[in-house]
Amino acid sequence: MQSTMTSEEAQAWEALLNWCGWALYHTPSADDVANLVAERAVFAEPPFTEIAPAGSRELEQVLARAGEAEDGAADLARAIHLDHTYLFRMTGQSKTSPYESVYRTDEAIMFGDTLFDVRTRLADAGLRVDSDLNEPEDHAGLEFMLAGTLMGRGAVDEARAFASEHLLVFAPVYLENLRRRAQTDYYRAVAAICADALARVADALGAQAVEQIDVARYAVER
User: Fold this and answer.
1) Is residue 14 part of a domain?
2) Where is the signal peptide (predicted)?
């Protein structure tokens, strides 16, 4: 368990966790996907290869295939958009809700008590939610971004507490569901990267979930 970290370690965690948050929270535009394809070599370098090697390799291969095909980036962007709609908007069908409250309320509903603590911590960290969807802030993507921000600031104790009280409770089952239900290799790779990053940061911090939810209640089949 770390109580402090070097600036290089802090920056590495911040970069990786913030990328995970971006990948889960935002729908990549055509330009975003074109940039990912063009800059795909980053997924063959640290911190991705050190912390999430399998998922990073898979994602680099997905982007490489798109880069080699005519109109590959545009085709990938369309596939990602459709998959994002299914995984993040059609959650009644996909069973992959990204909201923590769904996993921590008896009725499996949004806007549960955990939302208010996450909202306060986001505000305390100076993070603003930039969304026109008026969705609750206990979104897995935002929670990864908050963890990344805390790590980047060297706020190890705060990061440990947040991971233990929030991300580690629900995100492992959520990310496994995301991997199983994803229709694209892109989101399967994203889920793998995020899951590995969360497990590794928990090890680094000595963080453990404060509550064990009923995984069988939420786990999905392919």
Assistant:
1) yes
2) none
pLDDT 10s digits, 133-169:
578 999 999 999 999 999 999 999 999 999 999 999 9
For 72-106, give the DSSP string. HHHHHHHHHHHHHIIIII-HHHH----BHHHHHST
Give 107's contacts (C-beta < 8 A, 6+ positions apart). none
Would you say residue 2 lies in a domain? Answer: no
- pTM above 0.85? yes
Domain that holds residue 186: 7-218
Question: Residue 137: what residue type?
Answer: E
Looking at residue 70, the DSSP 8-state letter turns out to be T
pLDDT band at 5 (very low <50, low <70, confident <90, very high): confident
Q: Is residue 202 part of a domain?
A: yes
